[in-house]
Specification:
The complex is a heterodimer of chains A (about 290) and B (about 350). Chain A has about 290 residues and is mainly α. Helices cover about 75% and strands about 0% of the residues of chain A. Chain B has a five-stranded antiparallel sheet, with no helix packed on it. In chain B, strands 3, 4, 5 and 8 form a four-stranded mixed sheet that branches. The chains are: A mainly alpha (about 290), B alpha+beta (about 350).
């Protein structure tokens, strides 16, 4: 970066300076291409490994596929789907979708109250929310496990969902509240003048305006739950386990299980990747807004 | 991590495909840490025929030191053998004489490993030249004359041969397919023929990434892969908020690009850098999945982190919930300064 940017000033530009600029710019390009390759290759490797038969993976590296594309096969995926992996896929969906919806609904209402309704202790409560943003999930594992045990929902999907909702809420409330505060006060005052009840203001004025923020939050929460391993490891029984836990249980024999693990891992990251590329704008916004999580 | 994010963020401003680059770096953020763990288990696979990290390392290594690799090859250990082992290298006993072939018969290689190699040939160096043959002095199935080049015996190709005089290497050559080598144009003098150690070393097989010593750097590598995009995007957002005219003014005043970066960009970015740094610390403190997945069971003690230990003692077979709770509280205590930092920052922003 030392050289390439000297250009715009237009001052002190000798021929030598320009040559250095050109070479420096070229070096930056090369470096960035290398970094991009470094970032892409691991994922590409997973994809190719998942598409190769077990014998091929044992015999040679996945990169040989570029000279012998005939190795590619969907056999691993077929085997995986036949082995009951689909049930853990559905478990993941059953956990991720309700958690996301619940978090959005509860957080939107709470954030609205924090932003626009005066009530005693509001600021103190919100500071607690801010503090909880970074609370490590580990502190709740054991107490909640005991609580679930006495409630009889330990191991159930309901338990996993409730835990995710509880731990998703501080971030969600924080994100939405900061967005709601930015909505012009006049809009709300006007609606209040008209005598609309609070829920109507929320539904007709705030909610439509907040769609981008809610989209960011939804994607974030969904990915967070979809990708979670720790909570599932503790709270989900084998029959209710999501994909991450199902795959983790295969990790112990990594060497011999690559033909299950690679396609499983790739399937589990397919949906996040699709979401990410489809909604990357919201994703980045959410990241910027909630950079404290 | 913050540094890396800063570097990337600054450099992305210099390239035209910045959006694509950001996407690529950001993508791992969407991927679960479990999947990232599986991905990096594949990358770090020990066998260079399977793990891409070691494949690249061995390729680089072999490019710079082309070791044909005949591990185990050695001269016969008796007084008649014309060569001996000296500190890993094989040295001819007699000083080389121009015009007289130097014979270096070796044993210790399975003949099957040389299947398809060319038959050894007795070298015939011209007058004034030093030459000889390196070959496997074993006839498959027995027979042949010891220390003589026989028709059925195989030459060792690609072996590095040095001509040494007074302990200094004067010339280097390589054996041909039939095991012969020649030095031409050597000034007259007493030379000893030596086959350096590198010929007999085990081929380089890459590093044991998942072994006890390298497991921590390996996990850090994977972690950087996951989070660098996050740092980059945050810092890039901070960069775009820096007023252009401040930078331009400094440039017109004759500041070098490095000075502009050091004295203007970094101070103006400092709040963002701090946020990124704090966020990364909090995340690293809580890291669990990546260590749990990447570290094979046998090296998990070397790679242990609080979050993993907490899970292990209280759920993963340990059943000691008291110790688990203590570890969780310890983790919370570590995070409390950052909680206070966040609250302070929030209060300041609200005013």
């Amino acid at each position: 970066m030392t050289t390439a940017a000297a250009a715009p000033t237009g001052i002190r530009r000798s021929l030598a300076g320009r040559i250095v600029d050109r070479i420096g710019g070229g070096l930056v390009q090369v470096f960035m291409v290398l970094v991009a390759i470094f970032w892409l290759v691991p994922t590409l490797g997973l994809l190719v490994v998942s598409l190769r038969a077990e014998e091929d993976n044992n015999a040679s590296g996945w990169w040989t596929v570029f000279t012998k594309p005939a190795q590619l096969t969907f056999e691993n995926y077929a085997n995986l789907l036949a082995s009951g992996f689909t049930s853990s896929f559905w478990n993941t969906v059953l956990i991720a979708v309700p958690s996301t919806i619940l978090v959005i609904v509860i957080a939107a209402m709470a954030a609205y109250a924090f932003a626009w309704i005066e009530f005693p202790g509001r600021d103190m409560l919100f500071l607690i929310v801010v503090a909880l943003l970074v609370a490590p999930i580990q502190i709740a594992l054991i107490p909640i496990a005991k609580l679930y045990g006495s409630l009889g929902i330990f191991g159930s999907i309901l338990g996993v969902v409730l835990f995710h909702v509880a731990f998703g809420l501080p971030f969600a409330i924080f994100l939405l509240r900061n967005f709601f505060v930015g909505i012009p006060r006049e809009l709300l005052e006007a609606a209040r003048m008209d005598g609309s009840p609070e829920w109507r203001i929320f539904a007709t004025v705030v909610f439509p305006l907040a769609k981008p923020a809610i989209a960011s939050l939804g994607i974030f929460q969904f990915l967070w739950v979809w990708n979670d391993l720790l909570v599932a490891l503790v709270f989900a029984d084998t029959e209710n386990q999501p994909m991450t836990k199902a795959l983790q249980s295969q990790m112990r024999q990594f060497g011999t299980n690559v033909d299950i693990l690679a396609p499983g891992a790739f399937l589990s990251l397919l949906i996040p990747l699709i979401l990410f590329f489809a909604f990357q704008r919201y994703f980045v916004q959410g990241m910027l807004a909630g950079s404290v999580k | 991590m913050t540094t890396l994010g800063l570097i990337f963020a600054v450099l992305t401003e210099r390239i035209r495909w910045a959006t694509a680059f950001k996407l690529v770096l950001f993508m791992p953020m969407a991927v679960s840490l479990l999947a990232a763990g599986v991905i990096f288990r594949l990358v770090y696979e020990q066998d260079p025929d399977k793990g891409v990290a070691n494949a690249i390392l061995t390729t680089i290594h072999d490019t710079f030191s082309s070791s044909q690799g005949y591990p185990g090859a050695r001269p016969r250990e008796n007084d008649l053998a014309p060569a001996v082992v000296d500190d890993g290298a094989v040295v001819a006993k007699q000083p080389a004489e121009p015009g007289k072939p130097v014979l270096i018969p070796l044993v210790g290689l399975p003949p099957a490993s040389l299947e398809g190699a060319a038959a050894a040939k007795a070298a015939t160096p011209g007058p004034g030249e030093i030459g000889g043959t390196v070959w496997l002095d074993v006839v498959h199935g027995g027979g042949g004359t010891v220390n003589q080049v026989d028709a059925e015996e195989k030459g060792l190709a690609g072996i590095t041969v040095e001509a040494v005089s007074d302990g200094v290497v004067k010339a280097t050559t390589e054996t041909a397919a039939d095991g012969t080598f020649t030095f031409t144009g050597l000034p007259p003098g007493a030379y000893q023929i030596r086959l350096p150690k590198s010929n007999f070393e085990e081929p380089f097989n890459g590093l044991a990434w998942l072994g006890p010593t390298l497991i921590t750097p390996a996990i850090i590598g994977a972690y950087v892969w996951v989070w660098a995009g996050f740092a980059m995007v945050l810092i890039a957002a901070g960069l775009s908020a820096i007023p252009r005219d401040a930078l331009e003014a400094a440039r017109i005043d004759g500041a070098t690009e490095w000075q502009v970066f050091r004295r203007i960009t970094v101070p103006l970015l400092a709040p963002v850098l701090l946020v990124v740094f704090v966020t990364m610390i909090i995340n690293v403190l809580k890291v669990f999945d990546l260590v749990f997945i990447i570290a094979p069971g046998s090296v998990q003690p070397q790679a242990n982190v609080i979050a993993l230990e907490m899970w292990r003692v209280s759920f993963g077979g340990g059943g000691n919930q008291g110790l688990g709770s203590a570890l969780a509280v310890f983790l919370l205590v570590l995070v409390i300064p950052f909680m206070i930092f966040n609250i302070r920052r929030f209060r300041r922003d609200e005013r």
